[in-house]
Amino acid sequence: MKLNELKQYFLITIGVILVAISIEYFFAPNNIAAGGVSGLSIIVNKLVPAISVSTINLVLNLILLVISFILLGRSFGSRTAITSIGLSIAIWAIETFLKPYAITEDLIIATIFGTLISALGMAIVFNNNSSTGGVDIIVKILNKFFHVNIGTGILMVDCIIIFMAIIVFGVDIGLYALLSVIILGITVDRFIDGFNSCKEIIVMSSKVDEISKFIMNDLERGCTYLQGRGAFTGKEVLVIYTVLGRSEFIKLKGFIKEIDINAFISVRESYEVLGEGFNKIQ
Predict the structure, then answer these.
(1) Reading across the β-sheet that carries 264-270, which strands appear in turn?
(2) pLDDT, tens digit, for every residue of 87-103?
């Protein structure tokens, strides 16, 4: 197994553990069924307390995985299968060895912090080309056979689970579950954007050769010359275009400050960069 794959599986494991922590220390003790298979597991556990959340989660995920292989084919991602089972194992480990409890009984605090921890974990998992399975499988089946788009499918399934939570736990707790689903949908994307964000930089300077050499030799990044013409002077100028990480941009800005205090620098946030030196195009 390549080093990069080992790193991805390590990060996926961290993400799964974070999701398990959010379930066992924030959601399950407060009966917050925040959508997905984990939310459904919390509902079933309330109705059948003898069966643990981890067992219910594992059984539901295994059933969904079998259905997915039958209906969606073997091309279904192995990482998703490993991750969905891994989440059930992580939940079981916490229940068995750590005896989880409600860190807070304040429902709004439990909803917000539980969702943020879960969102961070899911973002790490998604960012490493996997998913936690469960609802994703149901949505893919709806998309294939009933032509329901992915976003609508997720909303439909989560609404059904939240409706069940309202019936089992009451309107108040059910609405907290709905709040969690809304926060999760927003924050997962924001976390993923944060993981992948880079600085898209344009530099105009009289020292373009020195700056480009610094980018290529010291920062070990590529850059491109763009041909431009000054509107006021009418002179031909070379413009440097490059994409850097945050720390690399700080180094570049410090270098430019030393050699050309009059340089013009334009910086934009880029939330996804694919290609050589960055993430592979997949």
Answers:
(1) 224-229, 236-244, 198-204, 264-270
(2) 999 999 999 999 899 99
